[in-house]
């Protein structure tokens, strides 16, 4: 399948300070990819290069089979910047009509776009009276103009409440199901874990990990937490049988490596007269993210 976005060996330096180093990344049609990274990791720089807003030093980049910023690429790429700013005196409807006219499209499509982002009722109110989440949704309506085939979204859910976030991801699911490729940056690890297909972790301008969450979890080989809840009165015997753990208020806590997980679990199951229950907690995305960021000297 032809990829919607291909970056290879992409390098960018600002006045001697490297912002992207040898970055390789591909996004396929219908794929939702989350770009994660600490402040200053290079996420916005990568997005601006994809949009053709700033030049890069070396490497290759193909956006929908064309050069970034070329007419061919721009016709089908949508961008939602981190801080969207609109004219406060215009209503939502006037603003979207204006964007449609700029793209040479009929202004009559504005109300449908506003309805898709849940702003139909507020369409005639001035943007100056909108909440931050509503302004973000105007930005999203603007990004949906012209049925884009690649969406580049810089922290699109920052400032949105939980219900608006869920609605936003539902909208993205529909776009991806129709074949749009989506690249979004975020610091909200839990939500991207659930709502995207692949994670790319940038650290100091380098891609330090990419894959599905299970891929990253396996590669990071972080420990799994086991919480063993003793039968009433069996706390002492359980602690003696599993000296590698430590007792806390509700049970015995053990951190085990992936390799030790099954042997330790069978050791615990053999103690069934002492054990009431076991809870197994795999490493979270936060743990995995810190692991890769630390590995790169953070
Ligand atoms: N115009 C610029 N001139 C000089 N340095 C810049 C410029 N823009 C970005 N940088 C530097 O490039 C690096 C990458 O910045 P970038 O904004 O791409 O990071 P980011 O991952 O988007 O960060 P954040 O999560 O804070 O938005 C940082 O060290 C930043 O200081």
From TrEMBL:
Pfam families: ABC_tran. Keywords: ATP-binding, Nucleotide-binding, Transport. Residues 5-229 form the ABC transporter domain. GO terms for molecular function: ATP binding; ATP hydrolysis activity. PANTHER family: ABC TRANSPORTER ATP-BINDING PROTEIN ALBC-RELATED. This is Cu-processing system ATP-binding protein. It comes from Roseovarius nanhaiticus.
């Amino acid at each position: 399948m032809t990829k919607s976005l291909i970056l290879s060996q992409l390098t960018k330096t600002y006045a001697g300070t490297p912002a992207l180093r040898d970055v390789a990344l591909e996004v396929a049609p219908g794929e939702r990819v989350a770009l994660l990274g600490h402040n200053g990791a290079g996420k916005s720089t990568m997005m601006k290069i994809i949009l053709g807003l700033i030049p890069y030093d070396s490497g290759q980049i193909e956006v929908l089979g064309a050069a970034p910023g070329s007419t061919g690429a721009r016709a089908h790429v949508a961008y939602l910047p981190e801080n969207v700013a609109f004219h406060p005196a215009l209503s939502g409807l006037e603003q979207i009509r204006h964007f449609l006219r700029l793209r040479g499209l009929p202004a009559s499509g504005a109300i449908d776009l506003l309805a898709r982002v849940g702003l139909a009722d507020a369409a005639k109110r001035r943007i100056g009276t909108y909440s931050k989440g509503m302004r973000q949704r105007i930005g999203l309506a603007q990004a949906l103009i012209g049925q884009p085939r690649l969406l580049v979204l810089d922290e699109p859910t920052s400032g949105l409440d939980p219900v608006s976030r869920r609605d936003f991801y539902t909208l993205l699911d529909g776009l991806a199901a129709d074949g749009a490729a989506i690249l979004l940056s975020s610091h909200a690890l839990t939500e991207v874990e659930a709502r995207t297909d692949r994670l790319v972790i940038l650290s100091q301008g380098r891609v330090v990990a990419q894959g599905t969450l299970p891929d990253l979890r396996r590669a990071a080989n972080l420990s799994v937490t086991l919480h063993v809840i003793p039968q009433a009165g069996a706390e002492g015997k359980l602690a003696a049988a599993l000296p590698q753990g430590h007792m806390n208020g509700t049970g015995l806590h053990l951190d085990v490596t992936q390799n030790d997980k099954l042997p330790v679990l069978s050791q615990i199951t053999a103690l069934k007269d002492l054990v009431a229950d076991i809870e197994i907690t795999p490493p979270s995305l936060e743990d995995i993210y810190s692991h890769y960021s630390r590995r790169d000297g953070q």
